[in-house]
Amino acid sequence: MTPPAVETTTDADRIQALFNRIAPVYDRLNDWLSFGQHRIWKLMTVKWSHASPGDICLDLCCGSGDLAQLLGERVGQTGQVFGVDFSSAQLEIARQRGENHYPPLPIQWIEADALNLPFANNFFDAATMGYGLRNVTDIPRSLQELHRVLKPGATAAILDFHRPSNPTIQAIQQWILQTIVVPVATANGLQEEYAYILPSLEKFPQGPEQIRLAQQAGFAQATHYPISGGIMGVLVVTKRHS
Description:
transferase, alpha/beta, methyltransferase activity, 2-phytyl-1,4-naphtoquinone methyltransferase, Rossmann fold, globular, 20% strand
C-alpha cells in the first residue's frame, strides 16, 4: 500500500517563511490586488458556508483573520470560531486585530498545518478557506482533512484566485499582477514573494478539476462559482449526511 502523501519539509518551510515575510503588508496588497473587492468576496464566502448563530466554525489558512472575524460575527457569542494558519506572523496580526474588535468575538487562533488538523472527526458545523488551497502542497490531502473535521451535512466555502477562461479578462488579470501588485510588493522589498502568484495560478486546478478533487475527497456535493469574470472562484462543498 502506498503511504499517504505528506508535505515535504522543504516545501512546507518555504511557504511558511513566505507568509511570515509578507504578513506586515498582506492586507494592503490584497486591497491593491482586488481593488478592495476581496471584502465583498469574503462576505459571499461566509454566506455560502451556511454558518449560523451558535455554530462551531473553522477558518482554515486564516491569514490575518478577516474571514474568521466575519464568521465570528455570524455565529455570535453562543458560537465558536477557530482560525487556523501555519504562519505565526499572520496569526499575531490576526490576534491583534481581534483584540481591537468590540464586542469581543468568540475566536481562538491556532498555529497548525492544513494537512494535519488538530481536531476530532465531525467537529465543525461550517468552514471557510481564503486563498489557502492554492498554497498548500497537497490539495487532495487538504480537502480530505477538511472533509474529516466537518460534521455530516456541513458545508465549506473555499475562496481563491482563478484563471479566467475569457482571454481578455485573463490579460487584465495578468496586467494587474505585473504592473500593480508586483511593483507595490517590490517597493516593500517583497518582489520575489509576490512574483510567485502567476506561476501558482498556472498550476492551480480550474473549477471542474476542483469539483472532481472535492468529490474524490468524499464530499457529496461540490459546486464551483466563478466570480468577477472568473478572476476569482468559490468552491462550495458539502459533506454527506450520515
